[in-house]
Amino acid sequence: MKLKYLRRLEPIIVIVLLVGAAGTNLPAPFGSIWGKVITLGTYGLIPLLSLVRWKRILYVATRDIPILLLTAMAVLSFFWSASPSDTLQFAKALLRNTLFGIYLATCYSPKEQMRQLLWVFGIIMILSLLLGLGMPSFAISDDGLWKGVLGHKNLLARMMTLSALLFACAAIDDPKQRRIRLAGFILAIVLLLLTQGKTALVLLLFGLSLLPLYKVIKQYYKLRVFLLLTAIILGGTLAVWLSANLETIIVDYLGKDMSMSGRDELWAVLIQRGLQRPWLGYGYAGFWNNLREVLIVNSLTWFDHKTGGHAHSGFIDLFLQFGFVGLFLFGFSCLTLLTRVIQLLFSTQATEYLWLLEFVLITTLSNYSLTSTVLDESNIVWLLYVSTAFSTALWSERIRRNYHRKELHNNPVIKRGTVDNLPNYQ
Length: 426
What we know:
Layout: H1 2-21, H2 30-52, H3 54-61, H4 65-76, H5 84-107, H6 110-134, H7 136-139, H8 153-173, H9 178-195, H10 198-209, H11 213-217, H12 221-244, H13 246-253, H14 263-274, H15 291-298, H16 314-348, H17 351-366, H18 380-404, H19 412-416
Helix pairs in contact: 1-2, 1-6, 2-5, 3-5, 4-16, 5-18, 6-8, 6-9, 8-9, 8-10, 8-17, 10-17, 14-16, 16-17, 16-18
């Protein structure tokens, strides 16, 4: 009976835990209570709910082997880590988020996950706005930049980029709720501007430029090919123009220097240190928790008060942790996932896959110069990446299976542009 009530509350529990997984902070005395609730939920309720469905979760967990290998590598890196105790501690949190992502893929369709994230991002935006207006000392940093409930302006900026794109895709999906979702889109942009996150703003503009792709996909075949080729040509022309005018854009418009605000010095040293252990790296969370390595990086003039235990590049952090093997696994995972998302978007014409395409591209590109890697256990990105990977693998398999049964062509749901009611393997 208790389990029955727990299942009824399950969607609400998932939304609350996703808000916590995003790294949400609350002012005292609510902060400590909030932390205990999230810890209890992620280490208690999610494993319990997963245990009830262990057969289905085990099946789903085998749909994406690169993700499993990356997670296993994080745990096994204890044996070669430069800081074994820290590797073990952080790997437990990574395992928890990986299980949460697999659980989401097992129990909720991509469209249902999209609706959950609308609530999650909406709650984060509203809390950030209210605390920014009511408790500016908590939600606004000393330099006047907004950090909201996420503790840092860059984290809020990245979250608002994803939020704006999510609400934009959702507005396309449901005309009846378009006004509410456009309001969420506008609020996300306002909060992004208050963070003054220039890199996040560039990523948002890139993501918005992809939205017309949804209209292209719904055109007739010949017109679709023509429009795609036109888009490729225009994209290539834009890339050439950006390359030719890169210095002007960075210096005059973004207000930065050509050395990425001094990061080139940091990256050069970190790559050099990474080449000391080129194949398997320093272990998960091993490099930045090793005193000897941190002292070397501390000697850089740019390091002081700016680095804070990360490379300002997700790819370099990944290389430091797992070497070339880890970079290869993640690269293969990204390419495989991107291919699946594009195939699902073209075959279903569903807006949830337009959102997933935006998420994968923005997440991958943001790893170039933002502060946290996709494999970071302390934020929601890895969790969503895992759920996206397993969800798309699962639904691709379902569509292929129904296609071979000759049911796909006659399914009116597919013609309408969604796969929510496809026969469920469960």
